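User: Please fill in residues for this 231-position structure.
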C-alpha cells in the first residue's frame, strides 16, 4: 500500500532503515509517504547516534503534482493545514513509536518538491561534525552545500538531471550541510524531498521483505542503492 492509505489498512508501515525485519514474510505493508520517509531517515540517523531527544518540524508542501498543475493547485497564496499538529508526525510514529516528533505543514505555490525545516532538541551537546557523521550513517541522505550554487529546489533538481537521473529523480533526502547549525543542545537543518522518487527504493526493499527473498535489511538497501545509482 502507499502512504496515502491508513496504517490500519495493513497494520504495518514500512521504512527500510527503521523496521525492515518486522516486514519479513508479511502479507502486506504500507510504504509511508514521501515526507514521512524523509522524517524517518533523518531522525532515525540521529536516534542511532543516541543524540535525539525530540524533533519539531515545519513542512513546506508543494501544491500539486507537476503533470496536473494545469488542473488545480494554488497561486499567489499559501495554505496552512487546518490542524496543528499535522499528520506526518503521527505517521512517522506508526513506524517508530519511540519518536517524539511534531510537525506542522503549509501548502506553497510550486510543484518541484517539498522542503522541511527542523528544530531538534539533542540529548547532549555535540559538534556539527558529530551530527554530520550521524547523518552519513544513512546511505539515503545526500549532503549538499548552499555555496555550491544549490540555493533552491529548482537548482537541486537541475543537479540531479545533470547527474543523469531519469526525470531528475531524487531518491535521497537532500540536506544542506552548510546550513546545518548546532546551538547549545539544539540542532537546526533544512532539506528537500522529492514526493515521487524518494519512496521508490523503499518500495523495492518492501517487496524483498514481504517475499522474504532477502532477510537482511542492510543487504537489501545496498542492492537497491546499487541498482538505482545511489552512492
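Assistant: Residues filled in for all 231 positions:
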Amino acid at each position: 500500500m502507499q502512504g496515502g492509505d491508513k496504517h490500519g489498512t495493513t497494520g504495518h508501515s514500512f521504512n527500510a532503515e527503521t523496521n525492515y525485519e518486522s516486514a519479513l514474510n508479511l502479507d502486506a505493508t504500507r510504504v509511508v509517504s514521501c515526507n514521512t520517509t524523509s522524517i524517518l531517515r533523518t531522525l532515525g540517523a540521529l536516534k542511532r547516534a543516541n543524540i535525539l531527544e525530540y524533533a519539531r518540524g515545519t513542512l513546506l508542501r508543494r501544491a500539486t503534482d507537476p503533470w496536473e498543475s494545469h488542473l488545480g493547485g494554488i497561486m499567489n497564496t499559501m495554505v496552512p493545514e487546518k490542524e496543528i499538529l499535522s499528520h506526518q508526525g503521527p505517521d512517522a510514529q506508526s513506524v517508530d513509536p519511540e519518536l517524539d516528533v511534531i510537525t506542522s505543514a503549509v501548502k506553497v505555490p510550486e510543484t518541484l518538491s517539498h522542503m522541511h525545516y527542523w528544530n531538534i532538541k539533542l540529548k547532549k551537546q555535540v559538534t556539527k561534525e558529530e551530527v554530520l557523521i550521524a547523518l552519513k550513517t544513512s546511505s539515503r541522505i545526500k549532503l549538499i552545500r548552499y555555496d555550491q550554487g544549490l540555493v533552491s529546489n529548482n537548482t537541486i533538481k537541475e543537479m540531479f538531471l545533470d547527474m543523469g537521473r531519469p526525470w531528475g529523480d531524487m531518491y535521497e533526502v537532500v540536506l544542506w550541510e552548510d546550513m546545518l547549525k548546532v546551538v547549545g543542545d539544539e540542532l537546526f537543518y533544512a532539506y528537500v524531498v522529492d514526493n515521487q522518487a524518494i519512496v521508490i527504493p523503499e518500495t523495492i526493499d518492501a517487496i524483498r521483505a514481504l517475499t522474504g527473498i532477502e532477510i537482511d535489511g542492510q543487504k537489501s538497501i545496498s542492492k537497491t542503492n546499487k541498482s538505482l545509482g545511489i552512492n
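For context: Residues 34-48 form the longest helix (15 residues).
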